[in-house]
């Protein structure tokens, strides 16, 4: 379904945030017979619905909101509406036509799009692809889940998009190049279970992409793909990291060396994998990666890591504080912990308790020496899951500021204090940015104490 297909139809846009606002503006330009916006989660943080938005579509809530959704020819839901929402379950049971702004946009732009998803690494990988394409003289527009709704993007010849599982779930067109960086259980409460999450995530590759590029070293992704044709970065024949002629790790394309691993300023093996995927995408798009390796090396060296993803705060006391607040699952925290292997480490965990299973984190830390500090709400349960590990010291404190204060006392001067919470931020904080702000301020305040 395209935006143009909404002409003359009754349309209900579900959600009044950035995505909902973009959808109302875009749909109104295509002359629907009737257009209404529905917000079932209005609160004191909601932005005013006024001016051109209110003129294009009245905003309704409560019981009337569901009635307007049920009466519409087409419901355009925002990505934040979970698959498990009772209204959505009922609408689907009634056979309602439900789509998203992402799907409407993709129907018109798929052939010009590189779409990137993954349980971890999608933001960094999509950013690397866009950055390297620009360096290689292939201009592009970067957007998606990073904060710019697709329906707000300008017209362009090439797009690079980061796409969440929520955005992927309603696609009926795959991008020309579909990229998957990793796969592990995440957002299960919103999707209805692990199988449903994988289904929604991999819907990105379910509608005829010209090329599929994946992280070939991810075990769950390998199981889910089976023998499907795909470029598997990280494995022989594609972009990999291997020992170079000088005895140090180098990025290669097949057996051809490109540049040293040291060129990439991002820490961690997972970021090596992200760059391998990005290089494989460029190769698939026809960029002569070997011929342009010097240009690409300069671009890689200048790549700025994304905020809130292993962002380091160097401290005069010799400690390295690391903001990895977007690590909202145990698997993401495990990647972050691995990035600082070999250094004394204190990890701060805890946030909204979604009932996740922290057994994988326990197994991952079984033979590691570190300190784990739990903060509300899930921190105590995470710490309890680690009970009995002989080389893991655990503590529970009342808040993030107390955790930073304790971490300063127990972490050696050359060590790392890692905020990798393995849980989302909402409930105790406005959003993940707010959690990062509190962490950074606590680092500064305890330094001065």
TrEMBL record:
<dbReference type="GO" id="GO:0005524">
    <property type="term" value="F:ATP binding"/>
</dbReference>
<comment type="function">
    <text>Cell wall formation. Catalyzes the addition of L-glutamate to the nucleotide precursor UDP-N-acetylmuramoyl-L-alanine.</text>
</comment>
<dbReference type="InterPro" id="IPR043687">
    <property type="entry name" value="MurD2"/>
</dbReference>
<keyword id="KW-0133">Cell shape</keyword>
<comment type="pathway">
    <text>Cell wall biogenesis; peptidoglycan biosynthesis.</text>
</comment>
<dbReference type="GO" id="GO:0051301">
    <property type="term" value="P:cell division"/>
</dbReference>
<comment type="similarity">
    <text>Belongs to the MurCDEF family. MurD2 subfamily.</text>
</comment>
<dbReference type="Pfam" id="PF08245">
    <property type="entry name" value="Mur_ligase_M"/>
</dbReference>
<protein>
    <recommendedName>
        <fullName>UDP-N-acetylmuramoyl-L-alanine--L-glutamate ligase</fullName>
        <ecNumber>6.3.2.53</ecNumber>
    </recommendedName>
</protein>
<dbReference type="InterPro" id="IPR036615">
    <property type="entry name" value="Mur_ligase_C_dom_sf"/>
</dbReference>
<keyword id="KW-0132">Cell division</keyword>
<dbReference type="GO" id="GO:0009252">
    <property type="term" value="P:peptidoglycan biosynthetic process"/>
</dbReference>
<feature type="binding site">
    <location>
        <begin position="118"/>
        <end position="124"/>
    </location>
    <ligand>
        <name>ATP</name>
    </ligand>
</feature>
<dbReference type="GO" id="GO:0071555">
    <property type="term" value="P:cell wall organization"/>
</dbReference>
<dbReference type="InterPro" id="IPR036565">
    <property type="entry name" value="Mur-like_cat_sf"/>
</dbReference>
<dbReference type="InterPro" id="IPR005762">
    <property type="entry name" value="MurD"/>
</dbReference>
<keyword id="KW-0131">Cell cycle</keyword>
<keyword id="KW-0436">Ligase</keyword>
<keyword id="KW-0067">ATP-binding</keyword>
<dbReference type="InterPro" id="IPR013221">
    <property type="entry name" value="Mur_ligase_cen"/>
</dbReference>
<feature type="domain" description="Mur ligase central">
    <location>
        <begin position="116"/>
        <end position="281"/>
    </location>
</feature>
<keyword id="KW-0963">Cytoplasm</keyword>
<keyword id="KW-0961">Cell wall biogenesis/degradation</keyword>
<dbReference type="GO" id="GO:0008360">
    <property type="term" value="P:regulation of cell shape"/>
</dbReference>
<keyword id="KW-0573">Peptidoglycan synthesis</keyword>
<dbReference type="GO" id="GO:0005737">
    <property type="term" value="C:cytoplasm"/>
</dbReference>
<dbReference type="GO" id="GO:0008764">
    <property type="term" value="F:UDP-N-acetylmuramoylalanine-D-glutamate ligase activity"/>
</dbReference>
<keyword id="KW-0547">Nucleotide-binding</keyword>
């Amino acid at each position: 379904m395209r935006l143009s297909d909404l002409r003359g139809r009754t349309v209900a846009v579900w959600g009044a945030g950035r995505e909902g606002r973009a959808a109302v503006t875009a749909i109104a330009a295509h002359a629907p017979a009737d257009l209404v916006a529905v917000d079932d989660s209005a609160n004191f943080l909601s932005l005013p619905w006024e001016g051109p938005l209110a003129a294009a579509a009245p905003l309704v809530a409560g019981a009337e909101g569901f009635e307007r959704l049920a009466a519409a020819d087409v419901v355009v839901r925002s990505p934040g509406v979970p698959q498990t929402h009772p209204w959505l379950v009922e609408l689907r049971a009634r056979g309602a036509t439900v789509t998203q702004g992402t799907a409407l946009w993709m129907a018109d732009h798929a052939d010009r799009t590189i779409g990137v998803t993954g349980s971890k690494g999608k933001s960094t990988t999509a950013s690397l692809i866009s950055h390297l394409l620009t360096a290689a003289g292939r201009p592009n527009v970067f957007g998606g889940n990073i904060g710019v709704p697709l329906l707000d993007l300008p017209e362009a010849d090439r797009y690079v998009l980061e796409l969440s599982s929520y955005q992927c779930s309603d696609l009926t067109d795959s991008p020309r190049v579909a990229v998957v960086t990793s796969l592990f259980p995440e957002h299960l409460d919103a999707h209805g279970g692990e199988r449903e999450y994988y289904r929604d995530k991999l819907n990105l590759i379910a509608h005829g992409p010209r090329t599929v590029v994946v992280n070939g070293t991810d075990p769950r992704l390998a199981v889910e793909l089976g023998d499907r044709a795909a470029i598997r970065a990280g494995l022989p024949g594609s972009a990999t990291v291997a020992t170079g002629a000088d005895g140090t790790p180098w990025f290669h394309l097949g057996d051809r060396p490109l540049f040293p691993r040291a060129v990439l300023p991002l820490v961690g093996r997972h970021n090596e994998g992200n760059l391998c995927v990005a290089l494989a995408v460029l190769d698939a798009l026809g960029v002569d990666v070997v011929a342009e390796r010097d240009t690409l090396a300069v671009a890689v060296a200048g790549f700025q890591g994304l905020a809130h993803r292993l962002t380091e705060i160097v401290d005069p006391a010799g400690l390295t504080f690391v903001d990895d607040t977007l690590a909202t699952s145990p698997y993401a925290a495990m990647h972050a912990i691995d990035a600082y292997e070999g250094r004394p480490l204190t990890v701060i965990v805890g946030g909204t308790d979604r009932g996740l299973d922290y057994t994988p984190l326990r197994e991952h830390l079984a033979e590691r020496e570190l300190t784990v500090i739990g903060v509300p709400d899930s921190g105590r349960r995470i710490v309890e899951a680690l009970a009995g590990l002989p080389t893991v010291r655990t503590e529970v404190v009342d808040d993030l500021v107390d955790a930073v204060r304790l971490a300063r006392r127990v972490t050696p001067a050359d060590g790392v204090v890692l905020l990798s919470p393995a849980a989302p931020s909402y409930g105790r904080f406005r959003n993940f940015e707010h959690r990062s702000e509190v962490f950074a301020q606590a680092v500064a305040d305890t330094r001065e104490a």
